[in-house]
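stuck on this:

***
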Amino acid sequence: MGKRFSRTLPVAHTLMGSLLAGASFSAVAQGEALPAEALDWQPWGQGEASQQLCRGRYVMPDYRLAAEQNPETLSVETEEADYAADGEALLRGDVVLRRGNSELEAERIFLPAERQQVDAEGNLALRDGQALVRGDSATLMLNEDRATVNNSHYVLYDQRLRGQASRLEQLNESQYRLRDATFTTCDPGANTWQLASSDIRLNQAQGFGTARNARLLVKDVPIFYWPWLRFPIDDKRHTGLLWPAIGFSTDGIDYAQPFYWNIAPNHDATITPRWMTDRGLLLNGEYRYLLDDSAGTVEGGYLSSDDGNSSNDNRFSGEERWYIDAQHAGRVNSRSNYSLRYGAASDGRYFDDFGGEFGDSDRASMERLAQVDYRGERWQLDARAQGFQRLEDPLSDTDKPFYRLPSLTANSNWELGGGLYSEWRSNATYFWRDVDERRVPEREAATGTRLHLTPAVGWRGEESWGYIEPRTELWYTAYQLDYGERETDRGTSPTRSVAVTSVDSGLVFERELELGNRDYRQTLEPRLNYAYVPRTDQTQLPDFDSRERAFSWDQLWSPHRFSGADRVGDLNRVSLGVQSRLIEDANGQDRLTFGVGQSVYFADRRIDSEGDPDTLPPRPEEDPNVNPQRYYQATRDRSPLVTRLDWQINDRWSTGYEWLYDDHREQTERSSVDLRYRHPEGHVVNLGYRWEIEGFDPDVVPGDDSFRNYSREEWDLSFAWKASPRIDLIGRYLHDQTNDRPLEQLAGLQWNDCCYGVQLVWREWVDDNDTARIEDDFNDRGLFLRFVFRGLGGIGQEADSYFERTIPGYRPTPL
């Protein structure tokens, strides 16, 4: 048994904590690799391994020496100790030194008489709870922040980083140098990738490192080289190059190289030159800032001359392509916030050509906004100036949205007691758009001011067994209009007053039920709703923001046939329906919801977008430019029969169903079926079917971009299958049954490993050219690859958000 003694020595923090504190950018040198157990590697147990990406983990062994009460005390254990007359000491055998949380093991340790340094040799190991360093020899300066370890191997436990360096030096309290070094996050013995450098310098105080002659090695094959590289060694943001994104498609190669600029702790910018072989050089940028009570971003892109074909017609060849989107939001006080935004693009196809993930663009418009609101205990106020650039090409004048310059809103509610309540809704807006008034429908030609007031009064009587709620709204709307150069007989100061009356009522019956040894409550909820809106002449009113709503379950119970305030649809109908729910007592979850309902009309619905109370819509055989269903929808005596179902079959399977059936023509108007599978391990399967009769949406007419001159029938299959903790398989197939063509095909594989990840995706899709014609649709396709080096970064486009939208329920494994 070795001798054990302890005493206090002036040993500096260099012993361990200072030596490794800056090594969050780890290194591996060119020496011989150590066995895994020498790196404190602990393989997973047999039951754990199957669920882990890595084969094990780094675990620091227990300290060999007990902690002293005084953390400055140096504890020593050795087999032999020789002392010279002048005070020199040579410790031999299995030597262990501990001071605080730092412990040093070596075969020989030499302490000079002046006790200014420690020289250690032979199979040395230093640990401090966060890291391990092994080496052949080391010199530790006890009164200075300097140290040297030769032929070092090291591990950072929490970061899962390991490496080697032929020489590891601590230059001062916060600066380190590693010579002939590399690092990796791969398991011991599996160097799938390494970053190697002849000279690495780490600055812990400033949080960054630099490397000369840096090389990225994959299976010992160099694939990337930097003469000089600057990189972060902590969680702080640092200026430097980010990993590039590379894409391949039928159009060629797409390479983007981001550069990150850390301007200040609350300001940063990313500048991204992007080279596309078929188009040229596109410069993108984003600037972000954070102030005391506000924050914002400014982003944009610029291509001086488009060298490629756009939408298969070369229409933008040689032209500038650009966009800008600036946002700022902040707080005025605890009850009031404000927002500013300005967005614009050179053309309506900019994001179709440049901005979409995997060829997909989710931007439909560019917003311009200046808005401030107030949320009080009684009143809610909102003031804004707002407009949109609609991203379609070609874009006709009639499709351009109106600007609101400004729009002022004031709303409030009052509970009057006994179930009686009142509401106040009010808005004043000036509408404007830059169009030729002579080239749009007359009802859309005007600009001007609209004052819209909708006070309401109602009463709701509610018991556990049911409720009844009569309600009346008064819609008062007044305009001041300007038709510009348009010749018109319409008045410039029209008004409208109309009352919207409804009575909603329902009963609730319950019974206890036992199914499959589980307790449930089943409800039966019949519902009766009556709505009356008198037919009011609105031919003199403009059409700024109204749209007739397509029929649905919710429309059974709503007195409003239109959105917006320019049209109030005439209505005299009663809706009847019944709903039943199966509620699991154990958790209160709705396991099954089934409902069926129908409206019965007592009068035709004459009011449409024209606002004429005396004329029914023309028949399609009389005018081919009208919605083919519009006349029938206006004159039918009952709505389609609406049936819906939501069924949580079990913890993994669920389904949803909606069916709108015309029992007079014995024809389905719209139907949708969804079957969903969710597995606890992350497997997802979705199967959907959609059918919609031509002209089902009453607001869409031939010539609109969203109109299709056929009944739409589509199948949608998507899945994501986690074949193992390492492998995700994803796919989607969207089929246009009507035209017998695939709208989207996607297949991909994601490989998840302990130290790297690979995402390979093939996609083919139909681009509709922003028109209603299928004749000018064309197919686009691409093969997309993303490679991620865990702990270092990745190359390729990030597509996780696109997968989540395309495959509902899928949560990609983070790369």
User: Anything to note?
Assistant: Residues 800-806 form the longest helix (7 residues).
